[in-house]
Amino acid sequence: MTTAILTDARYAAHTYPGHVERAERLQAIEQALDASELRSDLLAIAPRAAQNDELTAVHDARYLQKVERFGAEGGGSLDPDTYMTGASWEAALYAAGAAVHAVDAIMHGECNNAFSLARPPGHHATATQAMGFCLINNIAVAARHALDAFGLERVAIVDYDVHHGNGTHDIFYQEPRVFFCSTHAWPYYPGTGAINETGGGAGAGTTLNVPLSPGVGDKGYAQVFERVVIPALRRYQPQMIFVSAGYDAHWSDPIGPMVLSVNGYALLTQMLYDAAAELCDGRLLMVLEGGYNLDALGASVVAALRVLLGRDPGEDPLGPITAPGPDVTGVIATLEKRHPLFQ
After folding, report:
1. Taking residues 118-124, what's their average pLDDT?
2. Distance separating the N- and C-terminal Cα atoms of the chain
3. DSSP, res 205
4. With 90 as the cut, is the pLDDT of residue 67 above it?
5. Which domain does 27 fall in, by range?
6. CA separation for the pair 95, 114 (Å, rounded)
7. What gap in Å lies between CA 122 and CA 39, rounded to an integer?
8. Distance CA 224, CA 230 (A)
9. How many angstroms separate the CA atoms of 222 and 253, rounded?
């Protein structure tokens, strides 16, 4: 089993003092990787910059020009949450390019699976708007590349960040070749991802939103994946699985209201790893999104990499929350009864 990681020093130049989405996030992952002694078992691939045609396959060209120009003029605040520095545009190009390059590596057989450890994150960026710390929708660019460059007919994106992946949702809402599934805290930023939003037009039935009450932890997420997410993937039959890997649903996260543990996250990754092995020859690409407690972020990424390598995720250094969480059976029952994939 060959697992690749993609990261780049350029990402550190996109940072802003006091902001939770800062350079220290990847530094924490690097430190956790060093302590894990996994590096020699991983294939390190240097990312490239995303090309303009790869970006315009999902983003409006005028939007891209606007953001590039804003960065070239020194940056600042695009909105109350999202900043740019003079180096942010280059970092964003290499973040999107890392995910695209990972697709190439998997499809060409250089690795079985991969984890793009890049920032800024991307799943909130729509075709025409930066938001939620995101400039370019990295996973959307990569998924479109898999379809266009390799002729895949169906790919799936599973987003387990604590926030709804509204940008990815919007970009692929009417695209039958992309199944998008998001588990997210509800109602919470950005306030999208209602349970009855299931895709439109030719993409009807290819969006699966799983809005969850704050406080859901390992047991609730496992139930949702066992009864809804994995069965939906089996029905859709993707040829590659992408994961928007956000670790801000960890119980220690400063901005997320969920209580997943490191081991809880590892179990979700294991389920997706097993689904990829069953459905698409193991083709699985994880793309980093949120996660703002540095210890939890580093530990969760290391546990995920162990799973991708086909190993036990190891001990959870932070431990679980043992208090009972909200009941998720109502959400599960609603989806089983009403979502087109289950009819």
Report:
1. 98
2. 36
3. T
4. yes
5. 3-342
6. 14
7. 26
8. 9
9. 19
How far is Cα 81 from Cα 141, in angstroms, rounded to an integer?
22
- Is 123 an active-site residue? no
Residue 1: pLDDT over 80: no
- How many independent structural domains does the chain possess? 1
- Are 277 and 227 in contact by the 8 Å Cβ rule? The answer is no
DSSP codes, 21-72: SSTHHHHHHHHHHHHHT-GGGEEEE---PPPHHHHHTTS-HHHHHHHHHHHH
* pLDDT tens per residue, range 212-241: 999 999 999 999 999 999 999 999 999 999
Strand 241-245 with 284-288, pairing: parallel
- Look up the pTM and report it: 0.98
**Residue appearing with tokens 């003079």:** 86
Q: How many CB atoms lie within 10 A of CB 85?
A: 16
Residue of 124, 145, 184, 250 marked catalytic: 124
Hey, how many other C-beta atoms are within 10 angstroms of the C-beta on 283?
23
Q: Is the pLDDT of residue 6 over 80?
A: yes
Cα-Cα-Cα-Cα dihedral of 335, 336, 339, 343, to 10°? Answer: -170
What region, left, alpha or beta, does residue 151 occupy, with left being phi > 0 and alpha being psi -120 to 50 degrees?
left
Task: Kindly give the interhelix angle for 88-107 and 61-72, rounded to the nearest 10 degrees.
Answer: 130
Identify any residues that bridge with 157 across adjacent strands, giving them in sequence order.
180, 242
* CATH value at residue 135: 3.40.800.20
